[in-house]
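Supplementary Methods, section 5.1.

A reviewer requested that the exact input to the structure prediction be made available. We therefore reproduce it here, unchanged from the version used in the analyses.
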Amino acid sequence: MTAVARAEPAQVRLPLSQLLTLSIYWLGILTIWGGLDNVVVPQRLLDLDRASAGTLQAIIALVGVVAPIIIQPTVGIISDYTMTRWGRRKPYILIGTLLDVLFVVALATSNGFLALAALYFLLQLSSNFAQGPFQGYVPDLVPASQVGLASGLMGMMIVFGTILGTGIATLGQLTDAVIPATIALALVELATMVLLVATVDEGRTAPPRTRSWREIALSAWGTDILRERSVIWLLVVRLLFLGAYAVTRFVAAYFEDTHGMTRDDATLYLFIGTLVVGLMTAAAAVPGGRLSDRFGRRRVIWAAAAIVALGLACVALAPTPELGIVAFVPFGLGMGVFLSADWALMADVIPKETAGRYMGILNAGTAMAGPAYLVVAGPLRDLFGGIDLELGPRGAIAIGILYVGGAALALTRVDPRRRELEP
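The structure derived from this sequence is encoded token-by-token as follows.
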């Protein structure tokens, strides 16, 4: 595979192989989080305390959200000004990944809720240490004419990583090999990091540094961001829309409690549901990016919101687990369209010189999305479940419809014009 050349203002089109290289690390990141968030953590919490599993899930999510909010923009803006022989982003990606492996191994062998929460927090720290700089690659290197395609490929890698991670963790659950399966999640991320670092040439240039590193780090959340109204509103859009994706945290309980399945059967159906969502999301990701190039980012995202809301309503009301699986089809299609169009919109509206900072800020919306949903849906799941066990997961999933609707409204405040075109 050839190296990716750094794109300067007069950017040239990149071959498909190079666009895939720039997306590959998403596969590794989502392999870890897909396996942990969809299978390992929910199942462990159900084993610890089924009656309070939703509340414990919310606590875990809130513990984990602090790290990405602080780390992604801070390390992202530091990487914007970093000058090394490797480039700006790679040193942070390498260090973050190696720490990820360490913390996943520790989490796999831990016992008790406090240890689980502490290691989940540390893993969030290390993962976001790498993610903040990594997310600067598309604005750094991809020309405007290929942003839609690059965003679609990124969406596909996110989906395939989620499928792979959920599949590995499910296999571990079904074969009583949870610890080796959890460690395997980290090894996948390690492999994608090596491929990325070995093949991407991100150049050796950076904006001139006129401040100390401390001042640069503290500026990540400077008040100047308040002038970037579209960035702020897009942060709200991502917070709410991706919050709806966190309904997947309740799918294991959905099959067990709502449809009365055994643990093994529910785990198998969880993987089937994840596979359906993943395949649909992957199928829609690249077309979604291309459609957003043609019809505009906002129109495509509004269409995605309607499709996702339909899917969630059908999942929440499904009388049988099989119909629940079928309802994951529109949910996955809508999410695939959103992921690619949303990423392209992010790349359009941010200031380009400090892409690492602003992509980190916007991806704090990704990090906050799960907790923002779980802090509401988790306790409601326990409340509804106390009335009738099968209502708990149904109610939690239905809450996602409100989040998607809120995202659609917030999107009306985003100016979709590409930043370079502004006077």
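The first helix runs from residue 16 to 48. These observations are discussed further in the main text.
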